[in-house]
Amino acid sequence: MDTKVWDVRDYQQNLNQYENLDEIKLTFERGGLVALPTETVYGLGADARNSLAVEKIYKAKGRPSDNPLIVHIHHRRQLEDFTEPINDKVELLMEQLWPGPISFIVPLKRGFLCERVSGGLSSIAVRMPSHSIGRQLLQYVDMPIAAPSANLSGKPSPTTFQHVYKDLNGRVEGIVNGDQSEEGLESTVLDCTQYPFRIARPGAITKSMIEKIIPDCVDDQEILDSEKPIAPGMKYKHYAPETPLTIINSFEGLENAKDTWNNSAFIVPDDKQSLVPKQAQLISLCQNEEDIKTANHNLYHILHDLDTNEAIQDAYIYGFEKRDDTMAIMNRMEKAADHHIGKGDNV
Asked: What sequence ranges are listed for the domain YrdC-like (predicted)?
């Protein structure tokens, strides 16, 4: 398959001026797959009403068919086509947090979307991206777009056009080149099918942010991996580079733990670099432990780069103390890592 590339980087503010916009829309209408930028990661989009198109998403990614997809929209009126009436609390959260990096799981009205999108569930995850190009594209095609991350299943999610092209060139009809994603981690997924709500997947929108709008509306109980995942990223190993990756919480004893660190990389905040074994390669994750936004933004780009550096045989990444703003990045690290080293553990 020849994969078309649409470079729209010069049309951030007015995508309607792009001369091949109709070609992108026609690709969706004909059941093709189009990778598109969002503020979180690049998504692999297809018409959520077209079962053959959605089936192609699973095939292109090598994705398990019981893993549900997120439907992307540009306006809340689109929800009337495929969701049951949404309660006032959820409406308020949507009003305050959309467009933005949060998906809401709400009751599904059957008959409009194809069955494959929901993974056989009676609920559907939906979100409204804030990325300028992604949002304008959704407005122009004016259809619900099912879009998981535009990568091979299990690999690090793509935050740049180059990441998508490496994984999916020849497997999809087209890729929209729209610069690097701002957030760098997938959206928060909030399960609104029960109350209090539950965070099915942590992201940039944290529990405290949600509860500033509606106090005490999110259950503290973590949703565990289950036989029937209700959101992407719950059941299967995700986000993993081919390079073996270990999370470290302590640098104590590391200097003498291996004969040589010459082929090892340490992915750490800048203020921790002096603690790393001297022979190892240093990769900056962020400035310090409070600079979580930068760490989120950099994580997947770093994981992609590990596999392109032949000098790196294994990698060690700094594990943050778990708190509200680090839940998302630690969730992704733990699904990507092979090992975890805490105080008292040996390499």
From this structure: 18-205
